[in-house]
Amino acid sequence: MREVVEKVDLAFEVNGDSVRLAVSPDATLAEALRDDLELNGTKTGCEEGECGACSVLLDGKVVNSCLVLALECGGKSVVTIEGLAREGRLHPMQEAFVNHGAIQCGYCSPGMIMTAYALRLENASPTEAEVRRALEGNLCRCTGYRKIIDAVLSLNNGESRHD
Amino acid sequence: MSAMKMYQAPRTLEEVMRAAGETGATIFAGGTDLMPRWSKEIVPRPAAVVDIKAIEGLSGIEVTDGEICIGACTLMSGLDESAALRRAAPILAEAASRIACPQIRNRATLGGNLCNASPAADTAVPLIALDAVVDVAAPGRAGATSREVSITDFFQGPGKTALEPGEVLTRVRFKRPAAVATWAWEKFGTRPAMEIAVASVGVIVEASDGVIERARVAYGSVAPTPLRGHGAEAALVGRRLTDETIGGCVAAARGEISPISDVRASAGYRREMVGVMLRRMLEDARGG
Q1: B51-65, pLDDT tens digit by residue?
Q2: Which ipTM value was assigned to this complex?
Q3: CATH number at residue A153
Q4: Is A145 an interface residue toward B (CB < 8 Å)?
Q5: For A137, which of B1, B31, B100 is closest by C-beta distance?
Q6: N or C, which end of chain A is more exposed by having fewer CB within 10 Å?
Q7: What pTM was estimated for this model as a whole?
Q8: A16/A75 same-domain check
Q9: Domain presence at residue A56
């Protein structure tokens, strides 16, 4: 059991909203998102930075939220899977995953989608090799990676970019 | 289970050293090595951590004609994406680009990779080949003082460095390699991503009219620390890259490493792979 420790104020931005929380100094960003903000789209898998299920964007860069202390995020901006849809419409990356059947159990999907989303912020038309390299830290244990890679690549010639 | 009661992110080195000295706070940068150990309870959570990422001047890459200077908090992705570093010291940019995955490279710092002092630290091998030094800030009565430590002296054993309590690695510096230098770095593992090296080798050679004038060889994951290959270097300097020279260099390399058998590979396999990688690098350097 964890010892109860005094919580500390944290102010940051999550999916465009200003958020204030009181968190334990040892809380991870993943815990703050899931337990305090009830943004349970971000999954926790290995909790040691191997699986990528907890991937979110921190100031525009993809990170494992299990390896970030919540208190490191003061004044920073976080985007989670819940932040991608606009006005009730899925983000094109989410739609691409659906259309390509790039989901089986779904546990890895939020992390995969956030990592693929981060890739396309920096590289609008990635090659297959670039997609594979970008997803090297995201594990899927159900199926293969083929459909996931096809989903990401499908945006190169398809839909206009969301934002 | 222990609890972490305090997180600080001061703006000055003095405050970091005070926190590390007075409260015994653990110095924290990218957290990619520390946090898994805490969550898996391999080591207890420290009562206090002091984050050094907000300190000015600890991030960034300065490339001049003579020297390259890299702040301790520079990210692996920053090394990978720096066009200036790719031109000036591609051996280091390449090694950084092959660490773990994008999520880790966006958090892991150069200083952290060194201070973690893993025998497999991917950036250590190129930095040994580059003859790097690290700047260490030490608390002093009249404010912080700085001392310089060579990269080979910095590593003292698995997880052990030359840092004294309260000291902070602030910068990594090395002379810009000669434009004519050829380099190679390779890590061997069973998969291309998220892999801790089974063995790694780095080489920088400068030749004039086919005769090697200067050579640096370094190895990872085959000794208690990342290791400089003095024997392999001596087998190259003053010689042409003939089959005989390459054979002599490989034999010297196999003799001067001291690999262990563990979950990733046997000692014999590591020794064999170091020889294979080094031979290929030298054959590539001479053009076949």
Answers
A1: 999 999 999 999 998
A2: 0.94
A3: 1.10.150.120
A4: no
A5: B100
A6: N
A7: 0.95
A8: yes
A9: yes
